[in-house]
Amino acid sequence: MALLLLISLLLLSLTNSQCLDIISDGFDTFSVTEYGAIGDGKHYDTEAIQAAIDACHKSGGGRVLLPSGGDYLTATVFLKSGVTLVVQKGARLLGGTKEGDYPKESARWYVVLAENATGAGITGGGEINGQGGEFVVLENERKNVMVSWNTTGKCLGDECRPRLVGFLDSKDVKVWDVTLNQPAYWCLHLVRCHNSWIHNISIFGDFNTPNNDGIDIEDSNNTRISKCHIDTGDDAICSKSSTGPVVKLTVTDCWIRTKSSAIKFGSASYFDFRQFVFNNISIVESHRGLGVQIRDGGNVRDIVFSNIKISTRYYDPLWWGRAEPIYITSCPRFSNSKSGSISNIQFENISAVSENGIFLSGTKHGLLSDIKFKNVNLTYKRWTKYPGGLFDYRPDCQGLVKHNTAGLMVEHVSGLDIQNVNMKWFNCSLINGWGVPLYFRPNSVDKLSFHEWQSEDSIDN
Fold it and tell me: Which residues form the signal peptide (predicted)?
């Protein structure tokens, strides 16, 4: 696994150096103002932006420029092969807020959309803004009530909102040096893409808006994410396997804060997740840290989490999670669903300050196996007033289950290797619902190895 990490980081470095040169690649530049864009934030510039993209693509590729100082209001624009959309620093691309601004098919509701494209990209130092606040029907500090465009019948409830940026069935995707701001739904979405590079982007979503994920990697392979700042209300970096496996995902040097999971697998998990590396990541005051939610029969294997700092806290019982720093689960979504397995997962050089413990839960037919913790420091400290004493199996499965929580909860695990793990408890005698440092059910756990395990009480001064 160490070799896998080294190779992934080397490939990332080589790819980064190649992509940083794209602005000086000698291709032509097509300014949207030359095609009639006004940039006043009031009149739609969709036709001008699309005309510039089409002309750039027809010429063999290049850059489409949104000059600094303009607010360019648009309906969906379609990015094409060989075209890099350059939103200059000081410029904003504003997504429209009317249903008529987007295609009829809800699956194509994006402000910027690339379909079956090769070598399309976005950069420039400016901002793409989804005007997500315009979709809030009722502000609520627990969870906003949102607009719903469900007249198509293809989506239900308040999840019928447009995403910000999407690449579908594309390859050699590049998004770097740009801010993605206030998505109404998911922010950056990669679907069935191959060889994507996401570097030095900032994502800001409203903290009380549901479903405003940061980056969703769905059915996509060979994805590299580096030096990103993500501050949003829902899952920050989330991989999903809906129509095919997700293979070779590398995430390095990122900062994350979220009201949900900082890093998540699933819960859409019909196919496998393989060969993932997460290294040098800071997770700050998130509702849940590292989460694996396998619900649909897919399998997870060969995953490395290394050099990660985590702080988690309770935000609200409405949101899935109970402030677990690490949450690994495999259980069927429905009674007739297949159980998936999770194997060969390594956590190395992890430090966490959290309001809850680590949660490892497989099932009888979907065991967790070969899970390794090495050089892990865990500090348990409660500072919010939400009640504890609950296991959170959501989505579905058993829901919320009343139970004293533990520093490490283990069930249906075969092969757990603990090396140099330290637990520290602040004011543990004052916390209701806390249990012992380790809780497991003997008839569902075997092949345990403990070396240099320590748990100690400490008083918070």
Answer: 1-17
Of the candidates 303, 324, 348, the one whose C-alpha atom is nearest the C-alpha of residue 409 is 324
- Cα distances (Å, whole numbers) of residue 101 to 71, 80, 112, 327: 17, 19, 12, 39
**What's the pLDDT at 79?**
98
Q: Which domains does the chain have, with CATH numbers?
A: 2-458 (2.160.20.10)
Grouping H, G, I as helix, E, B as strand and the rest as coil, residue 98 is coil
Q: How far apart are CA 263 and CA 103, in angstroms?
A: 30
What does the block give as tokens for 206?
A: 């409203």
Neighbour tally for 71: CB within 10 Å: 17
CA distances from 461 to 26, 354, 450, 458 (A): 61, 17, 31, 9
| Cα–Cα distance measured from residue 2 to residue 347, given in angstroms and rounded to the nearest whole number | 12
Looking at residue 3, what is its pLDDT?
46
Which of 288-321 are b and which e, b meaning 16 or more Cβ less than 10 Å from the residue's Cβ? bbbbbbbbbbbbbbbbbbbbbbbbbbbbeeebbb
Contacts of 132 (CB under 8 A, 6+ apart): 182, 183, 184, 205, 206, 209, 212
Q: Give yes or no for a contact between 367 and 355, defined as CB atoms under 8 angstroms apart.
A: no
Among the listed residues 215, 147, 224, 152, the one whose alpha carbon sits nearest the alpha carbon of residue 184 = 147
Distance of CA 144 to the CA centre of its chain: 20
Using DSSP's 3-state secondary structure scheme, residue 123 falls into strand
Distance, in Å, from the CA atom of 65 to the CA atom of 53, rounded to the nearest integer, reads 9
H-helix segments, 2-93: 2-19, 46-58
Query: What's the rounded Cα separation, in Å, for the pair 53 and 80?
Result: 7
Q: Which amino acid is at 35?
A: Y
C-alpha–C-alpha distance, residues 325 and 286, integer Å: 9
Q: Using CA atoms, how far apart are residues 358 and 380, in angstroms rounded to an integer? A: 10
Residue 428 has pLDDT above 70, yes or no: no
Average pLDDT over residues 267-292: 97
Task: Tell me the chain's radius of gyration from C-alpha atoms.
Answer: 23
Q: Cβ distance 182 to 136 under 8 Å?
A: no
On whether the CB atoms of residues 220 and 244 are closer than 8 A, the answer is no
Which of 100-114, 203-217, 315-329 bottoms out in mean pLDDT, i.e. has the lowest? 315-329
Q: How many CA atoms lie within 13 A of 107 on its CB side?
A: 6
Please state, in angstroms and rounded to a whole number, the distance separating the CA atoms of residues 99 and 371: 47
- Kindly state the DSSP code that residue 460 receives in the 8-state scheme: -
